[in-house]
Amino acid sequence: MKQTITVGLLGLGTVGSGVVEILHDHKERIQHKTGCDVTIKAALVNDPSKKRELPTSSTLLTDRHEDITNDPDIDVIVEVMGGIDHTFTILMEAIKNGKHIVTANKDLIAKHGAELFEACQENKCDLFYEASVAGGIPVIRSIMDGLSSDRITKMMGIVNGTTNYIMTKMAQEGVDFDSVLKEAQDLGFAEADPTADVDGLDAARKMTILSILGFSMPYQLEDVDVKGIRGISLEDIKYAEELGYRIKLIGIAENDESGVSVSVEPTLLPIHHPLSSVNDEYNAVYVYGDAIGETMFYGPGAGKLPTATAVVSDLIAVLKNIRLGTTGTAYVQPQFPTQVKAKQQQWTKKYLRLQVQDQPGTLNEMTHIFAEYGISFDQIIQRSSEKEDQREIMMVTHQVSEEDFEKARQDLEGLASVKSIDSIFRVEGGN
Ligand SMILES: NC(=O)C1=CN([C@@H]2O[C@H](COP(=O)(O)OP(=O)(O)OC[C@H]3O[C@@H](n4cnc5c(N)ncnc54)[C@H](OP(=O)(O)O)[C@@H]3O)[C@@H](O)[C@H]2O)C=CC1
Ligand SMILES: N[C@@H](CC=O)C(=O)O
């Protein structure tokens, strides 16, 4: 027998309208898969007077969340409005009223995932959040289900669509940062506050969620080393190409015997590395496991319909659970304590771009400093600088510990012949 499930939407913007569209266009497919008919009874918005397409003519548009959280007819809440603490309060209220939750909100899950999970367990509610990491790519489900038999050791990838879109356009079309950010906003990829994208925080939240789930540890957002893309210039993109690399904003989470390190930063990748060809708003995540070896997940990481696909798939998971009379969630209580890896244990290659005095001995002075910390070079190129009596130097080091590199950087800054250190990025690949 067909069952009618009533949904309350929190948010009817880019993702919310995509959810409405998929539920409408795939209505029969969803009925067939779940045995359920889905009705959207109400949607919470900031401005109910704004003209917009409604899910059905009878859908209530409201700016009072209680109209949804307290409505006894509503079975499932789909949260696609964003926000952290206020949204958390609303969802906790909804869970206490027995509502199942589907959310696309990584800000919320990275900060309050554990509390939401506990409340859902206590109240026998579902909690699903596939769209919170890498938009339309089912990477959370893959980690929680497909790879659940393995021990995950590393996850690495491009997990922010906006910055990947910006950097692709900068590299391919030489477009300036501000105009391409505006394009990404118009296309619905960027967060309400796009500084979260540009400064790497959005990617850091996603890497936090992946680390909690993949490593089964209560990893904290505050422990992620985060650098955004503001410091990347068209010169860096050009010199990186010359050295055989592309620059991408890469998240890396590693777990080995010396601890866990999670970072998000601009990274030079060898041109033939598969992540170098991930362009526009696309995302890709490598997951390494003891048994499986290497797997890669690729697809659209942002945008209306790709993100809504993940949200509606979560809703389908809830519908199936309701039919089975059970509850479930993509969360598990972390099993192991987190031991954050010391800087001395974190090894990477580095790219530097510097302006130096054009005089004999400058390069010697610099290499002498690096040698003191045991740092050697993979590649060095020099170019004339726009500034009189200066040269521009681009270097790629061999593997160096973060701690030693930082000491060498400080010593370099103290040299009279070093006029400025304009860029420092991580480099992947090779020793
Ligand atoms: N866009 C994307 O590609 C992706 C987004 N996400 C996540 O999905 C969520 C939604 O994103 P998106 O659809 O892009 O955002 P939008 O800004 O397009 O939509 C937000 C919606 O929520 C409503 N809203 C926001 N705050 C409130 C509030 N305090 N009270 C009532 N209504 C509110 C807005 O109302 P009104 O329409 O009146 O302004 C709007 O309808 C975010 O958590 C985002 O991080 C996740 C993956 C990809
Ligand atoms: N702003 C985010 C949206 C998806 O999570 C991004 O650009 O990736």
Strand content: 25-35%
Distance between the termini: 62 Å
How many DSSP E strands? 17
Helix content: 25-40%
Overall CATH architecture of the largest domain: 2-Layer Sandwich
**Uncertain spans:** none
How many helices does DSSP assign?
Answer: 14
Shape: elongated
Distinctive features:
431 residues; alpha/beta; Rossmann fold; Dihydrodipicolinate Reductase, domain 2; Alpha-Beta Plaits; 3 domains; eleven-stranded mixed β-sheet; six-stranded parallel β-sheet; elongated; binds NADPH dihydro-nicotinamide-adenine-dinucleotide phosphate; binds the ligand N[C@@H](CC=O)C(=O)O; amino-acid biosynthesis; HDH
Task: Provide structural commentary.
There is one protein chain. The mean pLDDT is about 95. This protein has 3 domains: about 5-135 and about 305-325, NAD(P)-binding Rossmann-like Domain (Rossmann fold, 3-Layer(aba) Sandwich), CATH 3.40.50.720; about 140-300, Dihydrodipicolinate Reductase, domain 2 (2-Layer Sandwich), CATH 3.30.360.10; about 345-425, Alpha-Beta Plaits (2-Layer Sandwich). The protein is about 35% helix and about 25% strand. It contains 14 helices and 17 strands. The strands form 2 sheets. Strands 7, 8, 9, 10, 11, 12, 13, 14, 15, 16 and 17 form an 11-stranded mixed sheet that branches. It has a 6-stranded parallel sheet with strand order 3-2-1-4-5-6, sandwiched between helices. It starts with a strand and ends with a strand. It is of the alpha/beta class and about 425 residues long. The longest helix has 21 residues, at about 305-325. It binds NADPH dihydro-nicotinamide-adenine-dinucleotide phosphate (NDP) and ligand LTNE7NMQ. Keywords: Amino-acid biosynthesis, Metal-binding, Methionine biosynthesis, NAD, NADP, Oxidoreductase, Sodium, Threonine biosynthesis. Pathway: Amino-acid biosynthesis; L-threonine biosynthesis; L-threonine from L-aspartate: step 3/5; Amino-acid biosynthesis; L-methionine biosynthesis via de novo pathway; L-homoserine from L-aspartate: step 3/3. InterPro entries: ACT-like_dom_sf, ACT_dom, Asp/hSer_DH_NAD-bd, HDH, HDH_cat, HDH_CS, NAD(P)-bd_dom_sf. It catalyses: L-homoserine + NADP(+) = L-aspartate 4-semialdehyde + NADPH + H(+). Its cofactor is a metal cation.
